[in-house]
Write a structure and sequence with these properties.
By secondary structure, this protein is α/β, with parallel strands linked by helices. The chain has 7 helices and 9 strands, in the order H-E-E-H-E-H-E-H-H-E-H-E-E-H-E-E. Helix 2 crosses helix 7, helix 3 packs parallel to helix 7 and helix 5 runs parallel beside helix 6. The longest helix is centred in the C-terminal third of the chain and has 24 residues.
Length: 204
């Protein structure tokens, strides 16, 4: 395939992938996308009002999304947010416990009832991300998950809102997961706080 044809296919398939995202709840019941985002935005408002925080976890490219979005949520959206991506923390916990526990140990220490977790995994089967979601559930956190690859992945069964992309492509999964979290962030800014996210985050 020549590059021109590849670019056309990539753009066409990307649009189809965005439109194919599905959302389910903890009972595996389908939720409409706009309803799920409305619920999450309302929960984020409640998180802030309670003085709770938003936690992000992810590996690799998903870790980069976690760091980026944690910054955007506290800097632009006024939600206390963090991502457990410090290299010393990760290597110490992996060495002392196991890599499967690098996020769950942090959540067990720092998360509180009423916090929210956003767990990001392209495959949905990364044990450390699944364990993080399970730990957050035990502590009484609300959870949004973002996964892809197989629809029977382990992560999709753990969240209050589970965004699933039916794609085997890391590029599509990572980019669309970032897009979905940005939609949540921007919906809160635009609809709740009167910030024009379409024009340099100025006041409407």
């Amino acid at each position: 395939m020549i590059i021109n044809d590849f670019v056309a296919k990539y753009q066409r398939d990307f649009i189809e992938m965005v439109q194919s995202v599905s959302v389910t709840d903890i009972q595996a019941s389908n939720i409409k996308m706009d309803e799920a985002i409305t619920q999450i935005v309302n929960e984020l408002v409640a998180v802030s009002e309670r003085g709770n925080k938003l936690i992000f976890v992810g590996n690799g490219g998903s870790a980069a999304i976690a760091s980026h979005m944690a910054l955007d949520f506290w800097k632009n959206c006024g939600v206390k947010a963090t991502a457990f991506n410090d290299s010393s923390l990760l290597t110490a916990l992996a060495n002392d416990y196991s890599y499967d526990e690098v996020f769950s140990k942090s959540i067990e220490t720092f998360a509180e009832r009423g916090d929210m977790l956003m767990a990001i995994s392209s495959s949905g089967n990364s044990k450390n991300i699944v364990n993080a979601s399970i730990a957050a559930r035990k502590l009484g956190c609300t959870i949004a998950t973002f996964s892809g690859f197989s629809k029977d992945n382990a992560l999709i069964a753990t969240g209050d809102w589970n965004f699933y992309l039916p794609s085997q492509s890391y590029g599509y999964c990572e980019t669309i997961h970032a897009y979905l979290i940005h939609v949540i962030l921007d919906a809160k800014l635009y609809c709740n706080e009167g910030i024009d996210i379409f024009h340099k985050n100025q006041k409407l």
